Amino acid sequence: MSEEIKKVDKSKKINILLLLVIVGLLGGIAYLSKQYTNKIQELNTALNENLKLKSDLSDVNKSIGSVVDIEGRSADLKSNLTQMLKNYDELIKMDKSKADSLNIEKSKIQGLLGQINTLKSQGNLTYSKLLKMEKENETLREIMKSYIKEIDQLNQMNKQIQTDLDETSEKLTTTVTERDEYKKEAEESTAKVKKGAKLQAYNFTTSGMELKRNNSTKETTKAKETIQIKCLFTIGSNPLSTSGKKIIYLQVITPEGKTMQSRSSNVIETDQGAVPFSEKREFDYENQSIDVGVYYDLRGEKATKGTYKVRIFCEGNLIGSDSFTLK
Asked: What global pTM score does this model have?
């Protein structure tokens, strides 16, 4: 019996403990329920206040819109944007290499203009929207200023480069002019030296020669007896001329104007062009006066009556002339 009583007491104690736990849980649930209800009420209160704030803001916006000249400010904004488009067109003319980048910024401005027109046509242009677009306008203006500064710097650099090129070109022109002047002076000096170095022939004795019985020759004035033409002369001294071996060319011109030649290939280049010659002779020149003689054999060619002209060439220059007559 005592053991049964003990079991009953133990069971009662457990039931009591369980009851206490259940009571505690119910109390906690009641507390949490109350807290939840309070939070719901707070949220509802905050929501109502937010709705009221939105309503107040809307009223304020309408009030501001009624006070601010939206129409006037939007017109000013459109004017500014339109002027910016013109500025970009000028920038593109100044620097076509940046046309792509500049046209992108132009498209942004055109888009903002289109937005203003659309909002105005729909009656939805509010002060807050106008403020937002004005801020976008300022951003676009700052971008444009940076392009203006960059392109202006490039233009200044290009102007400096062009100035440097002009100065260089002027210096080159001056140098070329001076070079041409020096060249001209050098050529003139060379021509003077060349002219001064030209030999001169004088003291001419020119005549026809006939053959004597002893096979010697003597001077003659008869055309039919002439078998040879003799030309004697003196070449003057000239310290400017080069010394050494030189060649004298004799040109005998008949009364008919024909040059007497032993070979048709006897032609020399002179300051008067290509000249046929009759005979040539080499001699040593030591810058001193020297007597020279050149003989032309007719080799069966018949001499005609009349006056013959004789010219002497050396180093491409005509250095002397003479004439004689055969009867």
From this structure: 0.45
